[in-house]
């Protein structure tokens, strides 16, 4: 098992190097002078020179690239211009809030989609199935910046049950979690349903039924366990997407996580911070996908043998 | 409802919604709507009325005409970026899948790299760097979405290249480009069209996300994402500013997803 994990980590190394390189180049895609973009036309000449020096933009490209790697390894990940602090510190401070929201949203998404998806597959072709498919379609089609304002309108403005936005108490967590979770449950319900449908048609399910197992055991012990494999991939993708895509949700609900930090970073043209956040999210995403691969081998030991 | 009938219903409902949206996008400049940018400060955020069925928005702009003009932007940017990315994906993916070798390796490593950025992260980062404009938005969307098409097309090509008709063409000495264009591309169209339908929904979602974040169309351009962002500020007093463009956006994406489902049922032999 350990060997399997190590091999996957080693295999991810070229991708991570590629990610770092692409993120490094990001600032060089800025049309015109990046320093002028960050400080504005009216900035003093001396300030511009200072910033250019601070960011190493006066060096040849290859030296800038080495500097970028050096900053990654010395644990600063560069300096934020707006905060005048190391980028990694800023990210770590806010990662907890994002992780909390992502996890609760994923739990809500699973809590909605597993019963719906399994039930829909069991009753394929009936009204229950059509309703679940319709729900899934709605979850996939209505973006968070449409769902969230409507939810705020209902639960915060009219019913006055929950705070509009903010952070700190359980009540603050409810609306962003539900809105994000609703979006996730769309794709998940669909995946669970399709995957279950496939598994329910397999021989081993027929065998399980014919030997008189209870339907509950057939569904959950035999079918669902196998149906989990494609679902897990999607969930890994989701968690990665959540860590990043929560930009809009966190901005909407004033949630002090990485997404909101990202938003303020590109609004204030704090490019070192933008780079740091993109790098952080991409690397976490690659690692999450490796974790998902490892989880696969728990659900399906054949995976380990194949690779 | 049987699977087939459900697929057919999806195709009809989705197709109707999408056709209606495309018609709106095409005809809006010809119809006698208020100028979408005309301001009426005295009636800022006025609720829907006979004169303005969707109400007024920020600075008193007419929301009906804003939403209709917004459809032009969303569908225009969406269709443009989807067609360009799909074409790039078709050319690169089929070449890689057919030729294999180092070209395939290099292409797949680039695709892997682009897939290492989850969700709209890379789109947002690139748009933030390039600055807000419709052209930049298209560039960013194409730069990040061609990889999905390339990966799909490569996969299908890998299985098609072993088919008899391809081998027959190769045995007759047909050059690679001819085999690709004459024999492979026509058979790649079905999965490509299905993917493009879902891709259009995704592209419209990305366009409105970027505009919502202030990274898309420049301020003042009628756009659903921008309207949603403006509406957020006045949610408690003028909820129609969010609800109207929100419904337009949700309906369009719903229509595209339904249409994609229906098309897949009809075109993809695997699900038949």
| Class computed from helices, strands and strand pairing of chain A | mainly alpha
Poorly predicted residue ranges of chain A: none
The major sheet of chain B is characterized as: none
**Helix/strand-derived class of chain B?**
mainly alpha
Uncertain spans of chain B, ≥5 residues at pLDDT below 50? Answer: none
Binned, the helix content of chain A reads over 70%
Average pLDDT metric of chain B? 90
Biggest sheet of chain A: strands, sense, closure? Answer: none
Oligomeric state of the chains present here: heterodimer
Question: Overview of this structure, please?
Answer:
By secondary structure, chain A is mainly α. Helix content of chain A is 79%, strand content 0%. Chain A contains 13 helices and no strands. In chain A, helix 1 packs antiparallel against helix 12, helix 6 packs across helix 8 and helix 7 crosses helix 8. The termini of chain A are close together. The mean pLDDT of chain A is 88. In chain B, helix 2 runs antiparallel to helix 3 and helix 7 packs parallel to helix 8. The model of chain B has no long low-confidence stretch (mean pLDDT 90).
Précis, in short:
The complex is a heterodimer of chains A (307) and B (272). Chain A is mainly alpha-helical. In chain A, 79% of the residues lie in helices and 0% in strands.
Give the secondary structure arrangement, pairings included.
The complex is a heterodimer of chains A (307) and B (272).
Chain A: H1 2-26, H2 34-39, H3 45-55, H4 61-73, H5 87-122, H6 127-141, H7 144-158, H8 170-200, H9 203-210, H10 215-252, H11 258-267, H12 271-299, H13 302-306
Helix pairs in contact in A: 1-12, 5-6, 5-8, 5-10, 6-8, 7-8, 8-10, 9-10, 10-11, 10-12, 11-12
Chain B: H1 3-27, H2 63-99, H3 101-115, H4 121-130, H5 134-160, H6 164-171, H7 176-212, H8 224-233, H9 240-267
């Amino acid at each position: 098992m350990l060997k399997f994990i190590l091999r996957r980590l080693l295999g991810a190394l070229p991708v991570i190097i590629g990610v770092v390189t692409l993120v490094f180049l990001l600032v060089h895609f800025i049309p015109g002078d990046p320093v002028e973009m960050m400080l504005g036309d009216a900035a003093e000449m001396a300030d511009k020179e200072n910033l250019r020096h601070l960011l190493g933009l006066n060096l040849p490209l290859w030296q800038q690239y080495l500097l970028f790697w050096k900053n990654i390894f010395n644990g600063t990940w560069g300096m934020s211009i707006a905060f005048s602090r190391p980028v990694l510190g800023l990210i770590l401070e806010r990662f907890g809030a994002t992780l909390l929201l992502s996890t609760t949203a994923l739990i809500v998404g699973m809590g909605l989609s597993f019963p719906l998806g399994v039930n829909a597959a069991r009753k394929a072709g009936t009204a229950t199935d059509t309703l679940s498919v319709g729900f899934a379609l709605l979850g996939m089609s209505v973006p968070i910046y449409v769902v969230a304002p409507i939810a705020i309108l209902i639960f915060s403005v009219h019913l006055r049950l929950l705070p509009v936005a903010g952070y700190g108490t359980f009540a603050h967590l409810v609306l962003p979690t539900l809105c994000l979770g609703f979006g996730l449950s769309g794709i998940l319900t669909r995946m669970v349903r399709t995957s279950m449908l496939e598994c329910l048609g397999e021989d081993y399910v027929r065998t399980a039924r014919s030997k008189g197992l209870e339907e509950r055991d057939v569904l959950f012990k035999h079918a669902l366990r196998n149906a989990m494999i494609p679902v897990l991939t999607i969930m890994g993708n989701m968690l990665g997407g959540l860590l990043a895509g929560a930009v809009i949700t966190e901005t909407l609900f004033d949630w002090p996580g990485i997404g909101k930090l990202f938003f303020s970073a590109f609004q204030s043209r704090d490019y070192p911070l933008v780079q740091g956040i993109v790098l952080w999210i991409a690397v976490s995403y690659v690692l999450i996908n490796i974790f998902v691969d490892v989880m696969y081998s728990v659900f399906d030991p054949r995976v380990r043998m194949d690779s | 409802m049987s699977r087939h009938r459900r697929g057919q219903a999806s195709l009809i409902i989705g197709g109707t919604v999408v056709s209606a949206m495309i018609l709106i996008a095409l005809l809006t400049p010809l119809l006698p709507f208020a100028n979408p940018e005309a301001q009426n400060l005295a009636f800022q955020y006025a609720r829907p009325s006979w004169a303005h069925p969707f109400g007024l928005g920020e600075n008193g702009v007419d929301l009906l005409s804003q939403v209709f003009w917004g459809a032009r932007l969303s569908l225009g940017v969406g269709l443009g970026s989807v067609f360009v990315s799909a074409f790039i994906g078709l050319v690169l993916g089929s070449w890689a899948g057919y030729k294999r070798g180092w070209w395939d390796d290099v292409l797949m490593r680039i695709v892997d790299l682009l897939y290492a950025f989850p969700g709209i992260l890379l789109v947002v980062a690139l748009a933030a760097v390039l600055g807000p404009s419709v052209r930049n938005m298209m560039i960013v969307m194409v730069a990040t979405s061609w990889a999905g098409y390339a990966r799909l097309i490569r996969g299908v090509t890998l299985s098609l290249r072993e088919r008899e008709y391809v081998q027959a063409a190769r045995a007759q000495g047909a050059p690679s480009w001819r085999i690709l264009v004459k024999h492979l591309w026509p058979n790649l169209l079905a999965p490509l069209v299905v993917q493009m339908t879902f891709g259009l929904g995704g592209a419209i979602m990305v366009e409105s996300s970027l505009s919502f974040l202030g990274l898309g169309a420049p301020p003042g351009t009628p756009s659903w994402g921008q309207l949603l962002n403006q509406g957020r500020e006045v949610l408690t007093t003028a909820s129609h500013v969010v609800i109207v463009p929100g419904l337009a956006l949700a309906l369009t994406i719903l229509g595209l997803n339904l249409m994609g489902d229906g098309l897949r049922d009809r075109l993809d032999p695997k699900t038949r």
